[in-house]
Amino acid sequence: MTELHSQVIPLELAEHSYDITVGYGLKDSLAQTLKPWNQGQKWVVLTQQAIFDIYRPVIDALQSAGYDISPIIVPGDESAKNIKHAEQVWAQMVELGCDRSSILLAMGGGVVGDLGGFVAATYMRGIPFIQLPTTLLAMVDSSIGGKTAVNLSAGKNLVGAIYQPKAVLVDPSFLETLPKRNVISSLAEAVKYGFIRDTSIFDTFVTRYADLVALNDQALLADVIAKSCNIKAQIVSNDQFENGERKLLNFGHTIGHAFETIQEYGGLYHGEAVLYGMKCASYISHKKGLLDDAEFNAAMDVLNKFELPQLGAVEPSQVLEIVGHDKKNINGTLSFILVDGIGNGVINTEVTPEDIVESLSAVA
Ligand code: ADP
Ligand code: ZN
Q: Which of 120-129, 260-269, 348-357 has the highest mean pLDDT?
């Protein structure tokens, strides 16, 4: 493996600032990387069985280097993001002798990161935690920005806190064991950054999509991930609590969320639903004259590169109902994230129900 230099991306949030480090092979030198935080206190690594089975050597190496670290395993699916499991983790931490100086390392995807952050935010009123994302979605999106949560039966992420990690350590080599469908769907969030902020990311998808999916160019992949992290870091730094600019990150997510809800049991992945949602948002951007014909065609060409499961029949009225629930603002119009030119996301654009229904033709 060629040695690649790590890229360090600062996320500026006053006393809650931290670095996101992106580098192939980071996981193989964790004992060194984590040294600044280790004062001999108790560590726990929160993870899932499938990840533990593959990456146990990462934890073994920390133990061998003298870290007092114990694994805590939670279920391998979204059901782990539940207050019952949070309680079990809290209880195990008490049993292991964790105190206020203990550190939680979240080694996993979005599920582990969200639950781990929530547990860290609440255990003894808050202990430090470090994100070690193992999925692409977590690397470019969910591990950055401090959103932590558990689900209720009434809906996802209904209980949680904004609680920032001390560091995010991104090692793309974790992706080599991730199922391909998960890689492809998570690239949705990366191409999203191309749409809202960075034409160079968009152009990389135009020319190198196959190489990204195949993970066969480490420098290219690390670069796209680092650029994505950088955009997310800047946006979070400007608007931690999502009053304005952070809404840009919801590009493709409004109608995408409707698809996700409608197909809940058909099982569209989040990124897949967002890809369909970005097709609709591009359609509306074009209809409103924000994308010209050439830009719209380029947008659809890129989005059509992604291999997606069929979007079953969607009832326009159902989409409208869910979108309306989500996004209705005070005077009854719908507020959307669109693109005014590729690379330039805009928030708070008014959209009519007719625009939304018409946009479904982009995914028919
Ligand atoms: P996401 O971050 O995409 O939302 P999840 O946290 O739901 O994904 O994880 C998806 C599944 O993939 C889980 O079952 C998880 O245990 C497994 N997983 C996560 N990272 C890896 C990896 N690097 N290799 C293999 N399986 C993984
Ligand atoms: Zn998303």
A: 120-129
Give catalytic status of residue 253 as yes or no: yes
Residue extents of the structural domains in the chain = 7-177, 188-363
**List of residues 6+ apart from 304 with CB closer than 8 A:** none
- Say if 7-177 and 188-363 have the same CATH topology: no
Query: For the chain, what is the total number of helices (H) and then of strands (E)?
Result: 13, 11
Distance 60 CA to ligand 1 centre (A): 20
Ligand 1 center–CA 179 separation, angstroms: 8
> What spacing in Å lies between the alpha carbon of 63 and ligand 2's midpoint?
35
At 242-277, the pLDDT tens digits run 899 999 999 999 999 999 988 876 689 999 999 999
At 224 the pLDDT is 98
Domain 188-363 is in which class?
Answer: mainly alpha
Q: Which of 51, 74, 151 is the best mutation target for the ligand 1 pocket, counting ligand atoms within 8 Å of the beta carbon and taking the most?
A: 51
Specify the CATH class of 7-177 in words. alpha beta
For the whole prediction, is pTM greater than 0.85?
yes
Burial class (CB in 10 A: 0-12, 13-18, 19+), 24: buried
